[in-house]
Amino acid sequence: MTQGQGLRTKGWFFLAALGCTVGVAQLLVACGSGSNDKGGTIVPIQPGDPGNPDGQCAIPAAAMLEDVSSPTTVVGTGTPESCTGDAFIAAVAAGGVVTFNCGPDVATIKLGKPAKVWNDKGPRIVIDGGGKVTLSGEGVTRILYMDTCDQNQVWTSSHCDNQETPQLTVQNLTFANGNAKNESDGGGAIFASGGRLKVINSRFMNNVCADTGPDIGGGAIRAFEQYNGLPIYVVNSTFGGSDGMGNVGSNGGALSSIGVSWTVLNTVISYNHAIGNGGNPASSGTPGGGSGGGIYNDGNTMTLTLCGTLMQYNQVNAFGSAIFFVTNDHTGNIVIDSSVITNNIGGSWYPTYPQISNHDDTPITVTNSTIQ
């Protein structure tokens, strides 16, 4: 057991591709390696509660479930057949609160293209699957996209890189079989740049982004430019589930970002893979990537907070089998409380704690946790 506080790291700018994160035994879901062009074997998704059952950390008010009692759009009319990909895409484009009526059983909505958030349809966009809906990219497409600086999605301010809205929340959902291999910016399930993103009670499995590259990542989620540097909350969620269920990418198997802070609570991140090769900048003769098996943080002025979170069996080729955290301006910090980081595989450059790559002047505070 490693407990304590302190450490500062100094290194340089690397990017990690999101690998596969795995969850608790309850999540009986499989996901493929993501090594082929279609994003791996398409797997059936079974019901189960996401998150770490041993996680007992308090949830701040800003990270609570959103109210969906008065939805803007209800996708479906009571049968699985009525819950189509086109209906979901239209609901997201309309904004507001999106819920589902796909019948009494678990339903999978298959997408042939991503659902895109329109920046003028906020301020609040909430997608709630009620614990029964899987959004599947079918191994051919990313699932959800938001970018406040994308003119095609409507510019709503002169400072699109730092605007308060849209505020996107995904809750009580499963994201599976998303594929962003042909995208230049990562994020197999979700790409979110600008505004705010929040993830609650959700599962991510068998999502993939590009296999190689020094500056691309996020097998499950890729994020940039959150409003005023406020953190992305990830609460009671699972990335992966068990061997073969994980998310895969060049860097950051589960979560990948540049200049973004994260607060990850009562969550499981396991069996994700960062499969790039050569780090960032890429070593001579390599395509680059391969860092941050579970989480990849790069950029300036950011923090990473883990509480009640389990990270295990994530794997890398380059650096940070569990976590890769490099702040170019040496201002960031890591806080780990009541968490377990163990049995993550591969990598090097561990100046402070095993399985965590960071500058040696980055403060890391660890309490009531196991890192080994």
Strand and helix layout:
Blueprint: E1 4-6, E2 17-18, E3 73-75, H1 85-94, E4 96-100, E5 107-110, E6 115-116, E7 124-136, E8 144-147, E9 167-176, E10 179-180, E11 190-193, E12 196-200, E13 203-205, E14 208-209, E15 221-224, E16 232-235, E17 238-239, E18 248-249, E19 251-252, E20 255-258, E21 262-265, E22 268-270, E23 273-274, E24 295-299, E25 303-307, E26 310-312, E27 315-316, E28 323-327, E29 333-337, E30 340-342, E31 356-358, E32 364-367, E33 370-371
Parallel strand pairs: 2-19, 3-4, 4-7, 5-7, 6-8, 7-9, 8-11, 9-12, 9-13, 10-14, 11-15, 12-16, 13-17, 15-20, 16-21, 17-22, 18-23, 20-24, 21-25, 22-26, 23-27, 24-28, 25-29, 26-30, 28-31, 29-32, 30-33
Antiparallel strand pairs: 1-32
Please provide a written account of the structure.
3% of the residues lie in helices and 34% in strands. Helix 1 (85-94) links the parallel strand 3 (73-75) and strand 4 (96-100). It contains one helix and 33 strands. The model is unreliable at 1-41 (pLDDT under 50). It has 372 residues and is mostly beta strands. The strands form five sheets. The chain has an 18-stranded mixed β-sheet that branches. An eight-stranded parallel β-sheet has the order 6-8-11-15-20-24-28-31. The chain has a three-stranded parallel β-sheet with strand order 18-23-27, with no helix packed on it. 62% of the residues are buried. The longest helix is centred in the N-terminal third of the chain and has 10 residues, at 85-94. It has one domain.
